[in-house]
Amino acid sequence: MNPWFTHFSRPAPHAAARLLCLPSSGGGSTLYRPWLGGLDDVELHAALLPGRERRMLEPPVQTMAAMIDGLVPAVAALADKPYFLFGHSMGALIAFELTRSLLARGIAPPRRLFVSAFRAPDLPNPKRDLHPLPDDEFIDALREYGGTPDAVLRHRETMEVLLPMLRADFRMHETYRYHAARALPVPITALAGRADDAVPASQMGGWAKQTDAGFDMHHFDGAHFFIHDNRDAVLKTLGESIHEELAVAWD
Question: What pTM value is reported for the model?
């Protein structure tokens, strides 16, 4: 069993490709459970990161380098057939650095990188850092982001359990420092929410500079978590892109 990914007990061994999905800050594999069955001929794998879900007792990862070191062998174990990486918000940044590291280590990279709702990695964070805030201010900031039910944010005991993991996630991407390197030989598709105030689409066009293999960008109705609000449209875009990529590879 791969401790870093789950296919929700829905293996698809004969699928043509795999889609490996990385979550937003504070998110888990369940972010992607509603996608099960939504992509033809694609086996869905969602990341199980330390500090949440069945890895709740493990300390959350604090740095991007440590996250990548943990994920590389887990992805390598799933690279025996064509695969694609999708990351939403924090997950997009992880997927980008993960692709860089896979290439540097001579491991087959994804056929395409999907980055959703995160600014181009060379752009500085235009907002204040949240991870050092006192608990109440941090929780208020999470409420502004959306994606976490208000009932959870109001439940003090639950938040005491979740806050270390949430702070670690924000610390990881808020302390991330971009290092210039050769553009990826992997095509990139960016996905943006038209009403995403946290990450406006204008901050995502710069992803084009990170690849010399092709870039496109798609816009969806919805705010920061448009992948929920517009699930069918997002899956349609992913499915078409994945199968176009596979068709090119098989020509």
Answer: 0.95
